[in-house]
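RETRY 2/3 - previous attempt timed out on the joint model. Re-submitting the same 959-residue input unchanged.
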Amino acid sequence: MAVYERSYHGYDGELTGTGNRILVISKFATRELFRSRMFCAFFAICFVPSVSFLIAIYLRYNLEMLTELQIPIDEIFIIDAGFFINFLQYPQASLSFLLALVVGPGMISPDLRDNAMPLYLSRALTKTDYLLGKLLVLVVLLSLITWVPAVLLFFIHAYLGPEGWLVDNLQLPFAFIVTSFAWIFTLSLTALALSAWIKWKQVAQITFFGFFVMSSALGEAVREIFGGWLGSAFSAFDSYAVLISYAANEPVPISMPPSVAIMNMLVLSALATALIFQRIRAKEVA
Amino acid sequence: MTRGNDAIEISGVSKFYGEVLGVNRVDLTVMPGITGLVGPNGSGKSTLMNLIAGLLTPTKGTISILGLTNREPQLLYQHIGYCAQVDSFPPRMTGRQFLINYLRVHGFDKRSAAHLAHEALTRVSLLATADRRIDGYSKGMRQRIKLAQSICHQPRVMVLDEPLNGLDPMARAEIIDLFLELATGGAHILVSSHILHEVDLISDRVVFLSNGYVVAEGDVQGIQGEIKHHPIQIRICSEAAPVIAARVFDLPDVVEARLHDDRRNVFVRTRNADRFFLAFNQMIMDHPWTIEAVSPVDESVEAVYQYLVADEPVSQ
Amino acid sequence: MEADGAGAGLADATTPPPGVRNDQPPPADGADLATDARSQPVIELQNLSVTLGGHPVLKSLTTRVTGRCIGLLGPNGAGKTTLLNTLLGFYPSTTGSAKVLGRDIRERAVRQQIGYMPENDSFIAGMSGVNFVRYMGELSGLPPEQALERAHEVFFYVGLGEARYRNVEAYSLGMKQLVKLAQAIIHGPRLLFLDEPTNGLDPPARTRMLQLIREIRDSGEARVIISSHLLRDVEECCEEVLILRHGEIATYCNLAEQRRSIEKFLLLQVVGAPATDAGADPVDAFVAGLRDRGCEVGMQNRRRLRAVLPPTMEVRNVYELATALNVQIRGLDHKRDSLEDIFLRAMEGDHRPGDGS
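RETRY 2/3 succeeded.
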């Protein structure tokens, strides 16, 4: 017979490592996200272009179906580097932008709104750990709709397509991965910075949208009026487009030197990171 | 019972917010001096304070504050100072400006306002930081400026909700002295607080609220005496505790004498305090006991609170 | 009202019952004194200085703090909060060093052993109570299953069992305080920092909070540091106090040792028979009688007296006089230094070297 009394117990069990703590932040943030059915639907839709392009590649190499439909293959379906670039640039750049818009601005503000930062930072967590945890969510989600499908499509085409095409075009997957990451980091860090500084998710989202779209529109307008590439130096979209093409050894749509494009993204990322660290403090210095 | 213009009379007052109860059928007369107001969160304390400050109108019943009601706001608010629990200050103002503004609104001319503001700031010890912006004030300073606002126009009635919140121990003592000083001057000071021993220390009378009802009011010893169904408990500390326990149990009204584990303390319950003490004092004369301490365990705000208001043990 | 020391189902005969002030701090309940490690310092400061925004806030603090439960006191602006924040790693130290539980505060791992209950509201809206605390537990390194188990356990322990599935933003003030405590203890830290733990709590909630703190202290599993303006709360839980003033240590002392009982200084509560029209009020006669015999008597009000007895008088003599005059002595106590006295002395600059400073 025994009587169990409730009293305070210390904890002597095993502890997870630091890396794990970062993943905990990501895990909980992701769980929150996928609780919303709207988001699940949106995320599913983001895969539609990938699937469409996959079908296109498949069809290209399955002539029987096409000949039945009497479509002139070689003219329409030219699958070369440009094909993939188009893929990344048009549907996926916009979709990744939208995904960052939906996910990013709500990641940090809930922690700041009710003063939860001291609870994070009083534990064996640094501000860097915190940022990495949140960033990881965005990086993974955005990767799934940028370079991951692009690289997969590349290899599928290499498998289905002509001999030797793979070797000739090996620079493409690397190009996709590197430039996509640059794009992902720029978008994610900017979204997180806005989340850290703007309390209301919708306002942060509008600001995010405005910032990128305005800079893009402005860039185009400047280019129209003054010629040259200067206007595009401030537009992240244009920088991305330039970088992909350059990295893929393809003709560049805007005659902006790639170094400028890289600077654009780097500066934006650095600025955003600095802004984030400014805000995620446990206590304000009086 | 009318007492002219010296009291706050609350007759048959109920306040409902839709179907939600604030206070129900309250009858109180608040005299000059310090009156403590205690009760758990949600017991109607804030409602009662707002009613007395004239900020709410009762759903039923009447409140008369020094002969006035809130149908004559200009006359009434001159006499009332209110210190709320929440902070809300206009931005970018200094402490002094804030008070002067407040006084001007009350109809004082520039010179009087400056003078009164200065006096209030001195009383709450905020002179040094009076010309800094309230935005930059610490919690303790904010509390003091709120207090200053509630006393600067020299009202006769002060309604103070948790006035010592956020103050360090020295400031608490200072402000308590301020209250005692104002009370001696004839003001009605109503203080609501959760810190029961402080309420015990400063109040002449205490009002106990629970679930919207006044469950007791008066001075604590008097209330205790009236709670007939609870025998009063007394602690006696002495080396001779075991012997005392046995002897004391022989006294007629003693219902319980319990020896504590440490064998130095006896807890005695008796139905008649007066008779017990007289008899006990005599016993001390007749025996060679050294008494270290005697304390009535019940005659405190905490004890009465526990009997009347709460179900759980309240620390003493 | 049970006052025999058995509260909340824990058989803890060594905790003094409410209303009894022992002079000795109660020994740890069931904990082996050797592993209780009262000699191991909780906090060690070595010339710790912290400058914020250009102002020096903490000035070269040096001390060794031991003890199970320590009160951190000081007037506003003395540096209490800054010290707390520095030990938690929120502010960097300008010079000097600090160790907590034997490890330098700059090591990240030391915060593994720390639990912190902030003064202000601190939560994440949109999460249920148990989910929030579980999250905090996992962030502290608990494996997920353990975190979930302990989250539920801790909710019941603090008394919030029924509300654990509700969202935190819907909790009342008292409940939010308890949740803050819950997230501070879920990972079983060896050191707890509690900042104004009874802030805004009504009396029953305050009692509960203090009881929890005492239980945690007595379990021997964690040391507790409480920062508060409410000296009574600190007196009820803490054995030692560290008092700061103007960024320096004014006092560090053990309460029991400091509370000298002053033999001849009595606090009396008296009730006289009602005064008759002709005669004097018996209480007045009593006071006069005491004064005649050489006592200094002060009247706080009609019922509370303070009397300093001359060497020739004993407590018995006071009773003699009272009996003769038909005055009941309802309360008798020897004046002791309360924490308030110690605090006020510290503020006046009466520096006392305590143990270890």
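Chain C touches chain B through 56 residues (CB under 8 Å). Closing ticket.
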